[in-house]
Each structure stands twice: as C-alpha cells, then as structure tokens.
C-alpha cells in the first residue's frame, strides 16, 4: 500500500481551499492524502506592511522547515508568495493550471472616485501601491493586511473608497462582491493566480505523484515571470510586476519596475515564438536594468540605510555605480556657475600669454566667441581635463600643471614676456596672481564666470564629504558645521579643507573617479 501524502498548508481560508484542490486531484489519481495546517509568520504579524517585515518568503518559510523536518511531504503555496530560489533540498514538484491573473479593485457604492483628485485606496502590496500611485498620483494609499475575509471587513468598516485584491484569491473562495472590477492595466505579481506544490528533492514517490498534476503552459509562463523577478533581484520588497501568456504559439511578456512612490516606472514588452523563449526573462531584465533599473533597485534596497557620503558635485549614473557596496552616497551641486559676457576689448588683438584654470572658463570663452576669434599664442592651464577641453575647442596648450600654484611657479621660470591674461572666476584663489605679481609679471584678470554658493544641509549620518574645489568647501561650511572626513580632488582644494576639518584626504589624480576611489579605500 502506498504511503499517505501529508499536505502542508497555511490555515487561512484561501490556503486551505488551494490545499483541498491538490488533495482532491491527488486522490482522483489514486493517492491517499492528509491535510496538515501550519501557522506562518506572515499570518501572525499583521501590524506592519508585508514589505516592512523584510523577509522574503514570509508565507513559505514555516512550511519549508516543516518539510525539511519530515513533518509534511508536500507544501501548497500561492506561487507568487514563493521565493525565486528554493531552500536546498526542496524542489518545485508541480504547478496547477493558472486561474485569473488580474488584480481586482473592490469599491464602495460606485467608481466615480476614479476620476476624483482625492481618494483612499487600501492595499498591503508595494507593487499595487506603486502602480496605483503611478496612475493616480494624488490618491492616498493606506495599508491593509490580513486574510481575504478580514480585509473585506476592514473595507466595510473604514472610510476608504476601495481596496485591491488578487482576483484569483477572492474568486476561489466565492467572496468577490458585485462592486468589483479587474484592473487589466495593472501588471500582476510574477506567478499571480498560480498554485505551486513543493516537495523534498529526495522523495521520488511524491515527485512522481505530483508530476501528474503539472500544467505545462502555466509552468512555462510562471517560470519566465519568476526568472525575470530573480534577475532583477527583487522580492516582496520591490515593486515588480510580470506577466507571460501564450497565444498562437507565441509567448507574450510584459514586465515593470517602479519606485515605491510610483513616480518612476520602467517597463518592457517582448514576444517570442514558443520554444525560442529561453532568453526572454534575461533579455527583459537587462532591458529594465540598462534603463535605470539598477539604480532604482539599489535605491529600494538601501532605503533603510542612511547616507554616509555626500558629494558636493552632482554625480553621473556611471560614477554612482563605482562606489563600494558599503557606501550610500548622495550628491548635489554646491556651487552654481554663471557664464559672464567677456567684453571684446580683451580679445581685439592676439594675446601672447593666456592662463585658464578651469573648464568653466573654457566654456565661457567658447560661448562668447568662436575658436577663430580666440587668438592666443601661448595657453597655460591647470588640470588634464581642462587641457583636453581647451585643445578640443580652442587650440594647443603650451604647458599644464596639477594646480594653480605650481603653474605660477612654472610661469615665473619659463613664460615668454612679462604680461599674461588670466580668465578666472569671481572667487578665484590668490596664489597664482600673487606669485606672478611678486615676480614682476603683470596679470590682467578677466572674470569669465561667476560662482554662486548653493549648498544644502546634509544629514547627521554623513561621515565623509567629497570636495572638488575650494569653492565647494566654502559653500559646504556656510550650510554645515559638523566635522567630516574631507575627500578632496587636489591639493588646492585640500588646502581650503584643512582650514575647517581635521581629517583631509587627497585623491591620487584630480578626477571625480579618483575621489570615488579614495572614498572606497576608506570603506574597505
């Protein structure tokens, strides 16, 4: 006589309904069964939204432990609740034919609130919350937890306009009210509407019994959706939707990743012939990642981690990706640049010696005049990137140094003539003109651009600040007084930082990337 298959399930009404379906199908196939209800953490903790519990697989973990302890032989789950990576020793034994995949809005009285500016919608799902706010940004979302019955009761008892449910869930236990509509615009959770059976990998008898219940089309589609979720490294803490379906021998897929507040949305659609779909999930996940998905996922993952490094210059996406995993960085431009009008009298004749110490001065010159109008015989500059920009837009650079002081010392020794024109900011440092004047070199200063302080108050959690010029240091200390580690782009910036901070560190080369490397070295 074959053994009795013990079916583990949560003890909610919906979970028991699903388990009884499996029990019925197994018994129709000639197997003896027994239900074993188990209470899960997800059912016990109802005072916080699910995504705040920070546990992937909250509804499956208790059943996993029971199975590994050989207290049950199989477990029945809503597949959307199952982590994309199963515990060692546990495998997917079958997926039943899928039910309704949609989310459903249950509302009171009528649907007129959908066109109103203000409305209150209840859901405990971060994915539903994000998609609703993306579509209705002025509405308010309130948290809703508990089993289907208790959630429907809370909707009746509270002054809410509606609540969102899985259509399959309220339909299976016969609780779908007349006042309900499917939200066909809302992309469901990966594998929503599907029932999954797990078993021990070593239990061949049970795996063979369950294989008879497997629905191949549902298995193909839910596997794609769950692989897409896995590639994005998402779980119940990320607003990710995915739906695959088969029509006319083709697999149609649509997926979405949103910010928790719904303000950002990245979506993807793809169609492949059945049998040629094996790279579909990877392609769609890469599509999302390459269009800002990685940054969005990182922000979601780090939402509970405080910023520990602040850049006083806005960082590009590529620069942000260079940080060590222990660094949570924010950035803002602490200085604003205004290009000044340069009077033609400064440029009416060829200038023998020109000094340019920043890319901003280059931008000012080339905004005011064409390259042919900039008749400079000898150009001297500070910084490799400034040199590169000058040679791309104006002409050949005769000599470059890492900072203004070293350039001044070079000019005292090697400059032709005794006069030079210095295109600078209204906040330029004194080193260069002072050294040149002391050595009887006349300096004509032209304010090519003006610098405005635009610093913000940083959080108390910030330990280190990245500085790129003396002006960024000055702007920072006007808005902030806390002692921080100063990560500086060069010696000139470090000189100013040392007036205010005890721990000042200087990058190996004067680039933003080198400052990031300096930060990473500190956090290793």
TrEMBL record:
Tetrapolymerization of the monopyrrole PBG into the hydroxymethylbilane pre-uroporphyrinogen in several discrete steps. Belongs to the HMBS family. The keyword Ubl conjugation does not apply. It comes from Algibacter luteus. InterPro entries: 4pyrrol_syn_uPrphyn_synt_sf (IPR036108), 4pyrrol_synth_uPrphyn_synth (IPR003754), HemC (IPR000860), Porphobilin_deaminase_cofac_BS (IPR022419), Porphobilin_deaminase_N (IPR022417), Porphobilinogen_deaminase_C (IPR022418), Porphobilinogen_deaminase_C_sf (IPR036803). Its EC number is 2.5.1.61. This is Hydroxymethylbilane synthase. It holds the Pfam family Porphobil_deamC. Its cofactor is dipyrromethane. The keyword Ribonucleoprotein does not apply. One of its GO terms (molecular function) is uroporphyrinogen-III synthase activity.
């Amino acid at each position: 006589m074959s053994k009795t298959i013990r079916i583990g399930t949560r003890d909610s009404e919906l979970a028991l309904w699903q388990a009884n379906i499996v029990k019925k199908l197994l018994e129709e196939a000639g197997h003896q069964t027994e239900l074993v209800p188990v209470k899960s953490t997800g059912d016990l903790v109802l005072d916080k939204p699910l995504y705040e519990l920070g546990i992937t697989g909250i509804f499956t973990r208790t059943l996993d432990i029971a199975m590994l302890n050989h207290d049950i032989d199989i477990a029945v789950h809503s597949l959307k609740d199952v982590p994309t990576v199963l515990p060692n020793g546990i495998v997917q034994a079958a997926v039943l034919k899928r039910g309704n995949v949609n989310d459903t809005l249950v509302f009171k009285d009528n649907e007129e609130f959908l066109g109103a500016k203000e409305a209150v919608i209840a859901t405990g799902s971060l994915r539903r919350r994000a998609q609703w706010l993306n579509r209705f940004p002025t509405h308010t979302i309130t948290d809703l937890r508990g089993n289907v019955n208790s959630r429907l009761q809370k909707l009746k008892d509270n002054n809410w306009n509606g609540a969102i449910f899985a259509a399959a869930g309220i339909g299976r236990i016969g609780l779908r009210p007349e006042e309900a509509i499917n939200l066909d615009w809302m992309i469901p959770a990966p594998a929503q509407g599907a029932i999954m059976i797990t078993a021990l990998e070593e239990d061949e008898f049970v795996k063979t019994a369950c294989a008879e219940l497997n629905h191949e089309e549902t298995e193909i589609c839910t596997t794609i959706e769950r692989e897409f979720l896995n590639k994005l490294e998402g779980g119940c803490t990320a607003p990710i939707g995915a739906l695959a379906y088969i029509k006319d021998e083709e697999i149609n897929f649509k997926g979405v990743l949103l910010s928790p507040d719904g303000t950002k949305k990245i979506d993807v659609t793809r169609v492949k012939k059945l049998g040629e779909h094996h790279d579909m999930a990877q392609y769609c996940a890469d599509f999302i990642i390459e269009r800002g998905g990685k940054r969005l996922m990182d922000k979601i993952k780090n939402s509970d981690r405080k910023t520990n490094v602040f850049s006083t210059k806005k960082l590009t996406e590529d620069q942000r990706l260079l940080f060590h995993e222990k660094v949570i960085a924010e950035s803002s431009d602490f200085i604003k640049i205004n290009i000044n009008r340069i009077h033609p009298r400064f440029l009416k004749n060829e200038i023998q010696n020109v000094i340019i110490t920043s890319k901003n001065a280059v931008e000012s010159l080339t905004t005011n005049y064409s390259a042919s109008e900039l008749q400079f015989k000898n150009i001297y500059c500070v910084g490799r990137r400034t040199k590169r920009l000058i040679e791309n837009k104006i002409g050949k650079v005769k000599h470059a140094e890492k900072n203004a002081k070293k350039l001044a010392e070079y000019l005292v020794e090697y400059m032709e003539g005794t006069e030079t024109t210095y295109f600078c900011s209204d906040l330029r440092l004194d080193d260069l003109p002072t050294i040149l004047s002391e050595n009887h070199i006349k300096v004509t200063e032209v304010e090519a651009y003006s610098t405005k302080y635009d610093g913000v108050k940083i959080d108390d959690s910030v330990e280190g600040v990245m500085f790129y010029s003396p002006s960024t240091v000055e702007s920072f200390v006007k808005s902030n007084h806390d002692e921080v580690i100063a990560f500086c782009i060069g010696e000139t910036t470090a000189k100013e930082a040392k007036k205010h901070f005890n721990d000042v560190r200087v990058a190996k080369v004067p680039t933003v990337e080198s400052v990031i490397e300096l930060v990473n070295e500190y956090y290793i």
